[in-house]
């Protein structure tokens, strides 16, 4: 990975890291109130784009700096001719620091939200009449589930059916995990500052944010060097430097040779989907290793993918001894059980780049440590691509939010773990992680995972390092899904990859 990535827009900051960025900037001579001014002004600009002239805007302000951003926005929007109603969750005497300064600078009338679980009928009515509600209740400082008046207010916002702009995070969403224990604001748009947070990309946070924009508030990217971020947004910027640009003087033998182990006659399609995707992803050659009973059906369906009969363990060993095959994929449609475990062990002992998916994962629940030892002894990259069910079977004791689970699993297994879903997390054993957000919901269809595993193998075959190959594969899979559109079936994905790769290569103009 390019070391300059830590300064890029792909960086995600946990609320603690954001606090560090804030402190480093303030200790570097920029007063905190100046950061808050810029944050509040950015919120006001975003709000102005969401409403007509002279709009009615209700701003809900919490007890911390998130509320402080709300006071600044209130001042700016009032000055711009909007009618602004300001509601404080706690009496202004509880404010301090920059939030108090922002409140004083605002100098506008406000009300305090009544105590108790219910909120006044008049406040609920006002929210329902607003052109826009600005949620400046809680942001990075949320440290417990919402309760009491805060919870009642959030419920009233969601019940109002009005457009909502969230400051930094929808109140109730945990910035580090995207979790919303209790309840959270459902926003149409969110303005955050300096860099996105994991909670903007992980569900349910992602859905609750609406569209996210990132405002520059004067924090310099240089502070990131001291913070050393390790969680990233899975965008091309993260891995473009490792994109396998074909050597103009190269040939197919210099672009890697992936072998995909296919299953018995009744389940041949999955491995074929993988093999086709590996080829589309740019592997120079792809061979489908087939059991004898499936040879005919595979032969009927394959053209550019080569076919090799592999009658049993001995034939497999023989094939693996050929070092021209530089990447192996096993799992899709392969079958679950002891034979699969033995095949995976034979593959990993050959110390090649390997992708283990589907049945190759499901065969190990009671033998997970055995698998991790084999992975640990293999210096080449190994990718595990479980969905939630496969993950839970392989790592039954690893619980918690998705980012934490994927990172623990990567650390324990020594593999790059691709924990799939609408917000796929890719985690490397060295602690790096990336969160993906470009996958359309209609990508959740039979065979889609086989294609993802195939793309990963195709990229590994071209020599892309494990973490980057997994990130590229997940992103391309999402782009191919968008390209194929609603109604897609897995067969549509490999052809759609062509357009996705072309767009990427055109963008880099280096292809
Ligand atoms: N860190 C930075 O660089 C900047 C931060 N800014 C703003 O500051 C915010 C963070 O400010 P704070 O750290 O003051 O945190 P918040 O304003 O998000 O909230 C902290 C306050 O809420 C209380 N609280 C937390 N969870 C609660 C719950 N469930 N129910 C009731 N009360 C609860 C805390 O006790 C504390 O009083 C950011 O989200 C952002 O909006 C901006 O002003 C710009 C600069
Ligand atoms: K908020």
Automatic annotation (TrEMBL):
Indicate which residues the UniProt annotation says bind (6S)-NADPHX: 65-69, 139-145, 168, 270, 333, 387, 450
The UniProt entry, under InterPro entries, shows: CARKD (IPR000631), Nnr (IPR030677), Ribokinase-like (IPR029056), YjeF_N_dom (IPR004443), YjeF_N_dom_sf (IPR036652)
The reaction(s) catalysed by this protein are: (6S)-NADPHX + ADP = AMP + phosphate + NADPH + H(+); (6S)-NADHX + ADP = AMP + phosphate + NADH + H(+); (6R)-NADHX = (6S)-NADHX; (6R)-NADPHX = (6S)-NADPHX
Binding positions (K(+)):
66, 135, 171
List the Gene3D superfamilies hit by this protein, alphabetically: 3.40.1190.20, YjeF N-terminal domain
Q: Which keywords are on file for this protein?
A: ATP-binding, Isomerase, Kinase, Lyase, Metal-binding, Multifunctional enzyme, NAD, NADP, Nucleotide-binding, Potassium, Transferase
* Cofactor (UniProt): Mg(2+); K(+)
> Domain named YjeF C-terminal: which ranges?
235-504
Where would I find the YjeF N-terminal domain in this sequence?
18-225
- Tell me which PROSITE patterns the record gives: YJEF_C_3, YJEF_N
- A Pfam family that this protein carries is YjeF_N
Q: Which residues bind AMP?
A: 420-424, 449
Under the subunit heading, UniProt states: Homotetramer.
| Role summary | Bifunctional enzyme that catalyzes the epimerization of the S- and R-forms of NAD(P)HX and the dehydration of the S-form of NAD(P)HX at the expense of ADP, which is converted to AMP. This allows the repair of both epimers of NAD(P)HX, a damaged form of NAD(P)H that is a result of enzymatic or heat-dependent hydration.
Task: Identify its protein family.
Answer: In the C-terminal section; belongs to the NnrD/CARKD family. Belongs to the NnrD/CARKD family.
PANTHER family (UniProt xref): ATP-DEPENDENT (S)-NAD(P)H-HYDRATE DEHYDRATASE, ATP-DEPENDENT (S)-NAD(P)H-HYDRATE DEHYDRATASE FAMILY MEMBER
Q: What is this protein called?
A: Bifunctional NAD(P)H-hydrate repair enzyme
Question: What species was this sequence derived from?
Answer: Roseibium marinum
């Amino acid at each position: 990975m390019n070391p300059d990535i830590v300064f890029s827009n792909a960086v995600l900051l946990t609320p603690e890291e954001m606090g560090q960025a804030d402190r480093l900037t303030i200790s570097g001579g920029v007063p905190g109130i100046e950061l808050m001014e810029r944050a509040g002004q950015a919120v006001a600009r975003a709000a102005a784009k969401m409403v007509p002239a002279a709009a009615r805007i209700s701003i809900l302000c919490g007890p911390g700096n998130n509320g402080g951003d709300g006071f600044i926005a209130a001042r700016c929007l009032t000055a711009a001719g909007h009618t602004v109603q300001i509601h404080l969750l706690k009496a202004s005497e509880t404010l301090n620091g920059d939030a108090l300064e922002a409140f004083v600078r605002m100098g506008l009338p406000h009300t305090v939200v009544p105590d108790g679980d219910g909120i006044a009928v008049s406040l609920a009515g006002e929210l329902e009449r607003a052109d826009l509600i600005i949620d400046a209740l809680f942001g990075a400082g949320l440290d417990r589930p919402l309760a009491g008046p805060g919870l009642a207010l959030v419920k009233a916002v969601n019940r109002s059916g009005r457009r909502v702009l969230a400051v930094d995070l929808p109140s109730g969403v945990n910035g580090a995990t995207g979790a919303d224990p209790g309840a959270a604001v459902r926003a149409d748009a969110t303005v955050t500052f300096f860099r996105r947070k994991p909670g903007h990309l992980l569900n349910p946070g992602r859905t609750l944010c609406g569209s996210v924009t990132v405002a520059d508030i004067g924090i310099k990217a240089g502070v990131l060097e001291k913070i050393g971020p390790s969680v990233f947004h899975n965008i091309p910027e993260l891995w473009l430097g490792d994109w396998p640009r074909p050597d103009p003087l190269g040939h197919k033998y210099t672009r890697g040779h992936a072998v995909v182990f296919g299953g018995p006659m009744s389940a041949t399609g999955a491995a074929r989907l993988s093999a086709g995707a590996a080829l589309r992803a740019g592997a120079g050659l792809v061979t489908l290793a087939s059991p004898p009973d499936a040879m005919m059906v595979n032969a009927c369906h394959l053209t550019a993918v080569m076919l090799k009969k592999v009658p049993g363990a001995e034939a497999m060993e023989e094939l693996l001894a050929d070092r021209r095959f530089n990447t192996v994929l096993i799992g899709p449609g392969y079958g679950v059980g002891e034979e699969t475990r033995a095949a995976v062990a034979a593959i990993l002992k050959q110390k090649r780049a390997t992708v283990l998916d589907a049945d190759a994962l499901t065969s190990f629940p009671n033998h997970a440590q055995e698998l991790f030892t084999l992975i640990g002894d293999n210096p080449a990259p190994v990718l595990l691509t479980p969905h939630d069910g496969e993950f839970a079977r392989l790592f039954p004791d690893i619980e918690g939010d998705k980012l934490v689970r994927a990172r623990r699993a990567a650390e324990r297994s020594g593999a790059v773990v691709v924990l799939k879903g609408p917000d796929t997390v890719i985690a490397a054993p060295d602690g790096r992680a990336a969160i993906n957000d470009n996958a359309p919901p209609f990508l959740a269809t039979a065979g889609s995972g086989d294609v993802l595993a195939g793309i990963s193998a195709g990229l590994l075959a071209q020599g892309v390092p494990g973490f980057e190959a997994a990130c590229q594969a997940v992103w391309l899979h999402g782009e191919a899904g968008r390209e194929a559109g609603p109604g897609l079936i897995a067969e549509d994905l490999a052809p759609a990859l062509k357009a996705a790769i072309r767009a990427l290569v055109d963008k880099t103009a280096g292809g």
